[in-house]
Structure formats: C-alpha cells, structure tokens
Design a protein that fits this description.
Length: 107
C-alpha cells in the first residue's frame, strides 16, 4: 500500500488496512474466476478515499491475471468497502494484493 502525497507510515496506513481486512475473504473468492487457478499474480488498484471516509472511487486496475471477470470481481469488492476516515483527509492510495494458489490448487 502506498499513500500518495502523505506519510507512508503504519499509523497513516492503519485505517485503510483495517477497512480492507474484513473483505480479504471476498477478495480471495474472486480467485475462482481465474482462467488458470494454478497461476499466481499481483493485482493493483488506485483508491480515492473521501476525507470523511466511506466508499472510494476505484480506478486503474492492473493485473496480468485473466479473465476480465476476475478483475471485475476484485474491483467490485474494493468499490463496496466502507473506508474509515483517513488520518490526512482525502487520500489517494495505491493498493496491491498478491494472489497465490493454495498448495492443493497448485498441483
């Protein structure tokens, strides 16, 4: 996670990370939409979180994992997250996740 134009310390990242954490299982469920469930990859997205918190504007999804259904699923989860009020007001965040198959899936 990288916060644009602000401190990138644990204290500033905490409200964002704690807002995403309850949705990690939903994000993991998007894995089922991958064309190749044995392939690992990264997913990045930019979030513009309002000064008062709430729903973020989600933009610039980036991943090499296919198909579009996977990308749309991950973007949809981020679009539904109610973010806590950021410490520094309106905040732009670049958020990345690494998706890796479980040992049972990788075989």
């Amino acid at each position: 996670m990288h916060i644009g134009g602000g401190p990138n310390d644990a204290e500033t990242k905490a409200p964002i990370g704690s807002s995403v954490a309850p949705h990690l299982a939903e994000l993991a469920d998007c894995w089922s939409r991958l064309a190749d469930p044995k392939r690992a990859g990264d997913f990045g997205v930019d979030l513009l979180i309002p000064r008062e918190g709430g729903l973020a504007s989600v933009s610039h999804p980036r991943t090499s994992l296919a198909p579009d259904a996977f990308r749309d699923c991950v973007v949809g989860v981020f679009a539904r997250i109610e973010f806590s009020k950021p410490r520094t007001g309106k905040t732009t965040v670049s958020y990345s996740l690494r998706f890796t198959p479980t040992p049972a899936t990788a075989q």
